[in-house]
Design the sequence.
């Protein structure tokens, strides 16, 4: 009899590289991009430009964390751009029209976002609406409500301290908004990696039936994930308001696609159950660095869209080929 | 063996509306024994194992577990008591590590975070208990099916299972892998774990189980405690009628070669230098262990995979196959091994399934559903498919689905028909119907190739048997030379 192969070993590639949860390809791409831009432009490689890039990716970065959770459980969230706008308008209206303190406005904004996420979560679990459809509906509805609040008008003029959150560089380095993004990313990373609740997302995305049989409350996990995604979109809206010092209902149009792109470039699988925050951070940085670098190279914004499209295909294609080989 | 059973079932019945699935079934399982649960599809095996494992509730009857009343409301409750069902389809998360799969949903915690060191250590412990020397930190994706099966068992052991229900554990395993699994099952038995073993393969039942309990139409019909009971007696008790014959008599091949293959080699070398011919009216069996290259070989002949060397000739004409469409156009068709993924679209109607490979036969006309139905009714009436053309394929039994998969090709008058594992997952009673179809094809002058892991099947239905061993052609046996010993000798070279 042929002996059964009971000694299947790990593949011999570097252990520390694989620790980055499948994000090695995107990481190499990001490094290559930085090296290329450092040599082809004078302005790219400087502390100032680096901090600029961080400022530019805060909104995308915060939303991408929520989207990573959603995609990890095998879902999708098309509503984040609209929820971001809804959050901004609720905050602006509470503070500048109803005249309450801005802090209260921020609270209401986050509550409004959470309610949107809760509705999506209930639709997906209790009413079994496919996530694509449920969030497509919320994308339309939340945008509509955002417009109704001021009949499509923008609101300007917030307290100075609010604007300074996105401008004032503490210790000469980090603005409060960038700091907020880094905290969100760090907490999300620790949560996914070390908390039982975080690992549940991988189980649910990998195979909901396996998760259910293992005693995991799949519906609760799913609802929570959509709420968290919406709240993070709302938080991103507040950061955007601080950066712009104004709120308007058309904000965040098309952001859901940038967010999904960042997560996918970062190696999180659209079929769920594989990927992580490390990859998403790299995906967000790739989009941020690419936009920044292409601006420095004076590439037209239209051509930039084409290039980002190509990068998405390259990233996902490389990942697919890598998987096929294993 | 202790005298008290670990699990007792008394008068278990289950009804779905007017449908009585289980009727007054009683069963005892003792520690340290392997009980085979046998029955045709629909006999109530999976309902019964579902009731024991807590995923279904019985309509009537009581259960006792270790002397206490036992009525699990959820699988989790059963698992907590030590009753674990290992499903036929593996329930692993391929992207996660072995350790994490073993402890999914019950991660060892320390200070509110997952204790990865402890998790890996305890998982490794269970792996070595099963004599499995794989690092527990490895991802599950890419492991062999046999090893994944063992990891499922490790998962159950980590839950401190006292009763394991194995549902068709060897469905995807080859001879050597099955043997390795059996060694572990025997080891668990000697450690006092009670095991309920569900399988269609009589050979295995004889090898591994202490007792055989037969269910038919939801009723426990018989128990065989004697290992000397002939297989035939057990099968007759399952189907409820004497078996006249499983395999129909084979027709005499015409002597005219239809398919000639010489020096065929795959780019990945999963098979190398394979040469054979199949005559009109002949059935060639292909045997070998899992990984011997059987499926790869027939996929290449049917145009699904490329070849790097060798020739395929049909009626003397050399073929250059670039795709299954090329092969189909020449008259070579394949009934693939994985019915649900490759053979049939279960969410579509029978008529649609039959029409898909034959769309070109409708010419340039617009296709109406009436035309599809007429076409499909023609096809399925020839094969005794129990079902109507407008039914959905998911409503059919495995055996009838397989007949639809075969029927859809035969409207084209193929010259070569390749069947890969034609009766996998199909119960014993329905198998005879499939064998009849295969033999009838040969009688009509088709050259037939049957690939199978079931030795009895290959021996029963083939004029000659080609044996592959690790991608190499180990030999071709005539019907007179072939028996289970001579085939296994060649297969394990």
Sequence:
């Amino acid at each position: 009899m042929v002996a059964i192969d009971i000694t299947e070993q790990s593949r011999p590639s570097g252990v520390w590289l694989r620790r980055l949860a499948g994000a090695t390809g995107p990481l190499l791409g990001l490094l290559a991009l930085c090296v290329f831009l450092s040599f082809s432009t004078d302005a790219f490689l400087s502390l100032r430009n680096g901090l600029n890039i961080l400022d530019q990716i805060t909104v995308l970065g915060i939303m991408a964390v929520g989207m990573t959770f959603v995609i990890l459980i095998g879902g999708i969230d098309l509503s984040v751009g609209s929820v971001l706008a809804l959050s901004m308008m609720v905050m602006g209206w509470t503070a500048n029209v109803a005249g309450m303190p801005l802090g209260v406005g921020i609270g209401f904004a986050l509550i409004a976002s959470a309610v949107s996420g809760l509705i999506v979560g209930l639709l997906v679990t209790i009413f079994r609406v496919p996530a694509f459809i449920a969030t497509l509906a919320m994308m339309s509805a939340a945008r509509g409500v955002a417009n109704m609040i001021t009949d499509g008008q923008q609101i300007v003029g917030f307290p100075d301290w609010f604007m300074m959150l996105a401008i004032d560089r503490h210790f000469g380095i980090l603005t409060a908004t960038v700091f907020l993004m880094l905290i969100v990313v760090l907490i999300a990373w620790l949560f996914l990696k070390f908390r039982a609740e975080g690992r549940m997302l991988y189980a649910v995305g990998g195979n909901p039936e396996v998760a259910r049989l293992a005693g995991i409350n799949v519906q609760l996990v799913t609802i929570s994930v959509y709420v968290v995604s919406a709240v993070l979109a709302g938080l991103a809206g507040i950061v955007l308001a601080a950066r712009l010092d104004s709120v308007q209902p058309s904000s965040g149009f098309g952001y859901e696609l940038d967010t999904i792109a960042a997560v996918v470039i970062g190696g999180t699988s659209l079929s769920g159950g594989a990927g992580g925050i490390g990859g998403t951070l790299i995906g967000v940085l790739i989009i941020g660095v690419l936009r920044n670098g292409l601006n420095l190279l004076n590439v037209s914004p239209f051509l930039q869209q084409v290039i980002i499209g190509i990068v998405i295909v390259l990233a996902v294609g490389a990942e697919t080929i890598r998987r096929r080989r294993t | 063996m202790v005298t008290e059973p670990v699990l007792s079932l008394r008068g278990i019945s289950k009804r779905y509306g007017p449908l009585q699935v289980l009727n007054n079934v009683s069963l005892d399982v003792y520690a340290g024994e392997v009980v085979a649960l046998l029955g045709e599809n629909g006999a109530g095996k999976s309902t019964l194992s579902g009731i024991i494992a807590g995923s279904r509730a019985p309509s009537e009857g009581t259960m006792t577990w270790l002397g206490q009343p036992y009525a699990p409301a959820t699988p989790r409750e059963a698992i907590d008591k030590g009753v674990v069902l290992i499903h036929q389809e593996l329930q692993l998360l391929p992207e996660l590590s072995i350790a994490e799969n073993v402890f999914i949903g019950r991660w060892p915690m320390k200070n509110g975070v997952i204790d990865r060191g402890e998790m890996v250590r305890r998982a490794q412990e269970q792996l070595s208990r099963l004599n499995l020397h794989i690092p527990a930190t490895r991802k599950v994706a890419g492991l062999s099916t046999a090893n994944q099966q063992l990891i499922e068992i490790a998962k159950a052991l980590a839950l401190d299972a006292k009763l394991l229900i194995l549902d068709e554990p060897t469905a995807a395993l080859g001879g050597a892998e099955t043997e390795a699994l059996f060694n572990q099952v025997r080891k668990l038995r000697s450690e006092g774990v009670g095991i309920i073993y569900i399988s269609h393969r009589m050979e295995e039942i004889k090898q591994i189980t202490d007792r055989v309990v037969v269910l038919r139409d939801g009723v426990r019909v018989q128990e065989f405690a004697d290992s000397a009971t002939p297989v035939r007696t057990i099968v007759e008790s399952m189907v409820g009628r004497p078996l006249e014959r499983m395999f129909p008599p084979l027709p005499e091949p015409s002597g005219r070669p239809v398919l000639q293959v010489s020096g065929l080699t795959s780019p990945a070398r999963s098979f190398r230098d394979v040469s054979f011919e199949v005559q009109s009216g002949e059935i060639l069996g292909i045997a070998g262990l899992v990984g011997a290259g059987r499926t790869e070989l027939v996929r290449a002949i049917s145009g699904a995979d490329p070849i790097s060397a060798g020739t395929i000739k049909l009626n003397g004409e050399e073929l250059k196959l670039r795709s299954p469409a090329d092969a189909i156009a020449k008259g070579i068709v394949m009934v693939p091994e994985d019915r649900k993924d490759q053979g049939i679209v279960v969410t579509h109607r029978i008529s649609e399934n039959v029409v898909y490979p034959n769309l070109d036969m409708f010419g340039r006309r617009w296709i109406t559903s009436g035309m599809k139905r007429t076409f499909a009714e023609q096809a399925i009436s020839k094969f005794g498919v129990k079902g109507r053309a407008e039914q959905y394929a998911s409503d059919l039994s495995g055996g009838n689905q397989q007949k639809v998969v075969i029927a859809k090709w035969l409207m084209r008058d193929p010259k070569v028909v390749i069947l890969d594992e034609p009766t996998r997952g199909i119960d014993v009673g329905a198998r005879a119907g499939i064998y009849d179809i295969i033999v009838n094809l040969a009688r009509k002058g088709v050259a037939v190739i049957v690939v199978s892991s079931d030795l009895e099947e290959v021996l029963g239905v083939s004029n000659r048997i080609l044996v592959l061993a690790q991608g190499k052609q180990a030999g071709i046996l005539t019907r007179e030379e072939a028996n289970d010993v001579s085939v296994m000798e060649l297969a394990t070279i």
